[in-house]
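Hey L., structure's done. Input below.
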Amino acid sequence: MTTIATAAPAGASSRWYKLLYVQVLIAILIGVLVGWLWPSLATNDWIKALGDGFIKLIKMVIAPIIFCTVVSGIAHIQDAKKVGRVGVKALAYFEIVSTSALVLGLVVGNLFQIGRGLAVKPDALAVAHYVKQAEASKAVDFILNVIPDSVVGALARGDVLQVLLFAILFGFSLMAMGKRGERLRGMIDDSAHALFGLIAIIMKAAPVGAFGAMAFTIGKFGPAALGNLIGLVALFYATAALFVVLVLGLIARFIGFSIFKFITYIKDELLIVLGTSSSESALPQLMEKLERLGCSKSVVGLVVPTGYSFNLDGTNIYMTLATLFIAQALGVDLTFSQQLTILFVAILTSKGASGVTGAGFITLAATLSVVNPVLVPGMAIVFSIDKFMSEVRALTNIVGNGIAAVFVSWWEGELEHTTLHARLNRDSDPDDVQPRSKAQ
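Output:
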């Protein structure tokens, strides 16, 4: 059960400058101004290191947090069949929602053919690195890569899927030990709480990281970097927003809450993702907030980490929309059957992209090389603005994974609706809520 601490003093609400999301937002705005007015300063290695360093601090604890959370969630389950049931429900949800994101990208790309008439000469050398990575990636390699060569190596690299596989197996083993494993379960639970405490310390540096990342981005690319491609950026932003409001909004409404209240609830995480362009930077906080929202601990521990590889809604929209844009810009007419091929290929290539540098761009390369190799050099057309779209990809991904955890918890009959509505309606402050009991 959750316990709610004594309400904060009345004057605390006036201290708006102490709120994390306000500090991050101010840091982002300052970063934009510094990058725009003093680009030479903003592109300094030390400025870039502020953003990179913050992301590294977060990634440093992602693997152990996932391990402890998943193991704890499984070990406390009395019915082993539940893990498999939750996994099947999560994958079914992922496929349906991810496919809807791909379809939406195709529909919007055909309705607004903004790539027509662009006189841009693609530079194949600029994207050779990504194309090479995409060509080297095969479905069988992806499956085998889920199995780590060693547990220590998986934890050291922070490979989410490898750590998740080991955690699931270890959790089952610990569950089978019964009472003999109680001491070890307690140690893992305590370790998870300590790691979340560490995250709270690291998050105090979020404004600094957001400033560095945003200043470097604007300083390097500049507002003029959008150029003639501003239409693609705007269309992608609008499509992602439409997906969140329409698709995810309908799912939220079906469960009984507002998507806008949910977005407000996770605003801290969204602003951190906006500043760092990495959805992983907010993963630990998202998992903790979902538990506070009333989601089952075991469901959150299984669904959210898995969703970071199998439920990349923003990346899916980007792939189909960018593929059509490139084809239109190069004057290549894609038939209906070829567009269906894009859909089916993207369903496969979008899996396992989390944690890979330039993941959206690499999966785009893999999709283009299968659909029509002629389109691959056209990736250079969107190369210069990919950074500006990565933020929205990450934002859409994190909202999608949050809704997925709530939906699967509801599907399992383990969603605390009273707690859900209390948090979303701000009847209690999430920051005043203690972590959920480890006995749950």
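The radius of gyration is 22 Å. The CA atoms of residues 431 and 440 lie 20 Å apart.

-- N.
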